[in-house]
Amino acid sequence: MMSYAVVKGSGYVLVHTPDMIYHNGTTQTTEKLTNPDSEYLKKLPEHIRPYEKVVNYGPNQVYIGNLTPEDLRKYEMPWYDKDIPGASRFGKFGEIMPQDEFIALMKMVDAFDLVKLDKGFTAMVKEKMMNHPLFKDDVPKLKEGEDLADIEKYIQEQHAEGLYHEGKLVGCVKRAHDIDPNLNAHVLFENLVVKASGALAFKHLIDKNNINVADIDYVIECSEEACGDMNQRGGGNFAKAIAEVVGAMNATGSDTRGFCAAPTHALIEAAALVQAGVYENVALVAGGATAKLGMNGKDHVKKGMPILEDVLGGFAVLVSKNDGVSPILRTDLVGRHTVGTGSSPQAVITSLVTTPLDKGGLKITDIDKYSVEMQNPDVTKPAGAGDVPEANYKMIAALGVKRNELDRQDLGTFVEKHGMPGWAPTQGHIPSGVPYLGFAKEDLTTGNLNRVMIVGKGSLFLGRMTNLFDGVSIVMERNTGKAETAGASISEEEVKHMIAEAMRDFASHLLKA
Amino acid sequence: MAEKYGPENIIVLLGAAEAEAAGLAAETVTNGDPTYAGSLAGVQLGLRVYHAVEPEFKEAVDPAVYDEQIGMMEMVLDVDSIIAEMKSIREQFCKY
Fold first, then answer.
1. Which A residues in the span 395-434 are in contact with B, Cβ-Cβ below 8 Å?
2. Which of A344, A384, A395 sits opposite B76 (nearest CB)?
3. Could you tell me the CA-to-CA distances from A489 to A325, A333, A406 in Å, in that order?
4. If contacts are CB pairs under 8 Å, which of residues 94-113 in chain A contact chain B?
5. Using CB atoms, which residue from B18, B21, B73 is nearest to A345?
6. Signal peptide span per the entry (chain A) (predicted)?
7. Which stretch of A120-129, A477-486, B61-70 has the lowest confidence by average pLDDT?
8. Can you give the pLDDT at residue A483?
9. Which residues make beta-bridge pairs with A311?
10. Rounded-to-integer distance, Cα A259 and Cα A224, Å
11. A106: phi then psi, degrees, rounded to nearest 5
């Protein structure tokens, strides 16, 4: 008997990386190359938020689970000028880690001695990591540190990438090869950031959900970076590397890529692997992208705002066999933007939203909440990209009107009732559908929702291999407590039909005899 | 393209999601790039420019195809403000 897989738990983390905005965000590194004396680069330091402001920021508190998405509606936009009372670094889903501790974590997860940290900095972060609830045991991996002069030499003579904290050089990431562009310091820096932030989210997943890490069979990593060398640029595999860091001794894994749609692809894959009985526990994990730090920084600075893209995002989710309690993943109600779907918004929403609903005989209003691209509008609106989740909800509602499932005048209330304000950082794959999984688990167990849809979309054309766009979706439902067969009602009918058929067959044989 | 085919033979069709962005694109192909960033900075082509939700375009195409491709977005977008913005740009800068 095949039973639907369930979403067992999740972990969500943010990492405040103010110095990496300037040194590693592509908007800034491009500006440094093309226009080094620009006003923007001069003004940038005045627009960097201190750690406390990042913790007190409403959307960030939602991301780690201290506020719900609905709570955000109580605050008038913009949100960046409002502190959340009682905000905290740690939340029920994870934490907001400060930069110095994260640099230490990069060193702790580095398996090839590529991260070199200054002696004084090492002593300082050792103390802090001793007090971190999840990394005490890993403190010896920090070792004693290096002389700053040696670090400067690696940067000047061997193209190492500097690690900065509070404007000062505190370490570097070395290249791993003299000429291989896929093992240069820049690529390794980005990859170690993915590994470290992914591992941080994974640690919180285990910690917050009372999971025995040894029970995890398989890990699917679904970020947007690629690790490999010049003979296999995207050889992989972050999944196993992260599994090793968190001590998932009985797991292997692989990387799934699909731009921002990858996490939802991974969720469907995990659900299928568990439902088919291949594995019992599959974890999805993704780390954050330094390249996207300060992506819309020019607009934020122009408008006199702080640079809001100052955090890396990470998440981890565990998909397990049906426990009769956690919400189920309806693998029979999956939406796909296929090669033949077409690119008009109508075709996209039809393929991702209404096609799976039609399979289940459901209406657009039968889904209590849609989790779409949950980008924080505080970030995107000033940059001229509008309110992304709201635009998605309006499109879903408009399709509902076209299908006569919704009155045109109810368009606005649909957006409020079936949608949520965006809260996720603009880290590509991070905001796409998955930020809601933590809340969805609660809403579909202790809360009052029955059915939600997770939608992931991705801009494949950015890779220049196709002009196509991509997307997938899956419905998640409250668990009825019965370990049901996929499509149970249909197969019962079918079984009766088959028995009747067999009896008739048998009878006709008897008659012939 | 304007040089090759003649600006009087060109119509630019936009699909921007809101009035400000549509206006910016429309201004670029009429009065020149207002941000002075691209190759059309200071180049006043004065082309005819319309947005896909404007009646001029809607009436010129097959209603069934329009409904299939744009019908849903017509409900979502702030059509009135896009039309107002496009009209204003055409009145000021369009030469044809």
1. 395, 398-399, 401-402, 408, 411
2. A395
3. 20, 15, 28
4. none
5. B73
6. none
7. A477-486
8. 59
9. A16
10. 6
11. -60, -40
Q: Determine the topology of domain A6-482 in CATH.
A: Peroxisomal Thiolase; Chain A, domain 1 (3.40.47)
- B71: pLDDT strictly greater than 60: yes
Cα–Cα distance for residue pair A218/A477, rounded to 1 Å: 23
pLDDT digits (tens, 9 = 90+) for A279-302: 999 999 999 999 999 999 999 999
The reply to whether B70 touches chain A by the CB within 8 Å rule is: yes
The answer to whether the complex's ipTM is over 0.90 is no
B36: closest CA of chain A, how far (Å): 16
Which residue in this structure is represented by tokens 């659900």? A271
Q: Which amino acid is at A121?
A: F
Residue A348's nearest CA partner among A456, A262, A435, A451 is: A456
Q: How far is B20 from chain A (nearest CA, A)?
A: 9
**What residue ranges do the domains of chain A occupy?**
6-482
Q: Give the tokens for residue A66.
A: 């201290």
Tokens read off for B10: 């060109």
Share of chain A above pLDDT 70, in %: 97
Q: Is A384 on the interface with B (CB under 8 A)?
A: yes
Taking only the tens place, the pLDDT of each residue in A114-172 is 999 999 999 999 999 999 999 999 999 999 999 999 999 999 999 999 999 999 999 99
**What distance in Å separates the CA atoms of residue A407 and residue A402, rounded to the nearest whole number?**
9
**Residue A362 CA to chain centroid, in angstroms?**
28
Residues 4-43 (B) with a CB less than 8 A from some CB of A? 17-18, 20-21
| Distance from C-alpha of A190 to C-alpha of A227, rounded to nearest angstrom | 9
pLDDT band at A504 (very low <50, low <70, confident <90, very high): confident
With CA atoms as reference, the chain A residue closest to B69 would be: A344
- Select from B17, B18, B72 the Cβ nearest to the Cβ of A399: B72
What tokens does A323 get?
A: 């426990």
Residues in chain A: 513
Are the CB atoms for B75 and A408 separated by under 8 Å? yes
pLDDT greater at residue B20 or residue A485: B20
Q: Tell whether B2 is within 8 A of chain A (Cβ).
A: no
Prediction pTM value? 0.90
